[in-house]
Specification:
mainly alpha, Leucine-rich Repeat Variant, 224 residues, single chain
């Protein structure tokens, strides 16, 4: 009943003038509901029952394949702090198929989970070896939340090193973003990493990594 009510509301909020697809290269299954409306629906329909029922509802939303339903599942997991690792890894492996779901799930759920449960760090780092671009990006983006808090510097560089020569721009942007966030706490170390590896580092990743650096450091990093 809950899921059907949500789907009815999503259909009501569908906007014929709005296309989610324009933000993505891969095909997206969507109601074409604007982000603010999706978040309001997630808030209004948040389950108040036991955690097991919440997880079942999230799984049902993910399984539909609709962009907005996956986003609601992420919003609920964030609100409820669903930090059960096996469940989150299953979502990454089974359902996450675009950059928006990667970034939402990894920044706001898996990242905070890693701060609370560091025993899962190595497993998340192992995603860098996956054949899936979404899993490799997930490995990088999952560490953005901890790095913003000044944590896990060594893991940030391990991930960047593992993904250094990745030829997928989605992944390059992911680990470049991680380094950019790391620059706010560890500017010298990130700069040194970039300078050491810039011959092998794709320009997309490099530009992301140095975006927040002072102009003089940017010039040095970009110089051939």
């Amino acid at each position: 009943m809950l899921i059907e009510s949500i789907r009815l509301e999503l259909r009501k909020k569908s906007d014929p003038s709005y296309s989610i697809q324009r933000w993505f290269k891969e095909p997206i299954k969507a109601y074409n509901v604007r982000s603010a409306d999706v978040k309001k629906i997630a808030k209004d329909f948040f389950p108040k029952g036991p955690t097991c029922e919440l997880i079942d509802a999230c799984d049902a939303l993910w399984a539909s394949g609709y962009m907005e339903e996956g986003t609601i599942a992420i919003e609920w997991a964030k609100k409820a702090k669903l930090y059960e690792f096996h469940m989150l890894e299953t979502w990454v492996y089974k359902y996450v198929k675009n950059w928006a779901h990667v970034d939402g799930l990894c920044c706001y759920v898996i990242g905070p989970m890693l701060v609370k449960k560091p025993e899962h760090i190595d497993r998340v780092k192992s995603w860098t070896k996956s054949s899936s671009r979404w899993k490799r990006r997930s490995a990088a983006v999952s560490f953005i939340f901890p790095v913003r808090k000044g944590l896990y510097k060594e893991h940030m560089f391990d991930i960047a090193s593992s993904l250094l020569k990745d030829n997928d721009d989605i992944v390059q942007k992911g680990y470049g973003w991680l380094l950019k966030e790391g620059c706010k706490k560890f500017q010298k170390e990130v700069f040194d990493f970039v300078m050491k590896n810039k011959k092998d580092m794709p320009r997309t990743a490099l530009r992301y990594a140095i975006e927040k650096m002072p102009e003089e450091l940017k010039k040095q990093a970009m110089a051939k």
